[in-house]
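Researcher: Here's the sequence for the chain we discussed earlier.
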Amino acid sequence: MKMMQEFKEFAMKGNVIDLAVGVIIGGAFGKIVTSLVNDVIMPPIGALLGEVNFKDLKYYLVDVTDMDEAALETAAAIRYGQFINVVLDFLIVAFCIFLMVKGINTLRRKNEEKEKAPAAPTEKDCPYCLSKIPIKATRCKHCTSQLEASSNA
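Model: Thanks. This is the structure I predict for it:
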């Protein structure tokens, strides 16, 4: 039972749930990209190349001269047209992920620069006793020396 409790704690952590949501959204995004490639991008390319349907492009590994349509479907073949579609799917998804990572890195860099920016000084050194005093002070609290009026006051 302890193992089940540990698994429940693991599964309920935020990172696991975030990962699950990411996988589900990624799967849906993959279907959108597949439809984009198969239904929008490849038909015009096929039309430009002479009414070629890329899904039908294949190289048969056996002699098909005497085969009927049903036998052609089951004949051993290298389906390079479908491979071209899948490669194009991958390239589009990879490019989208690249853009997302690039955007996230840019935001992260801007946040790091904001955090690294030095804060305006709030203290200065007394010219007489060299103690730290507030920047707007007109008299040193340590040596009671009268200080010159600064532009920050």
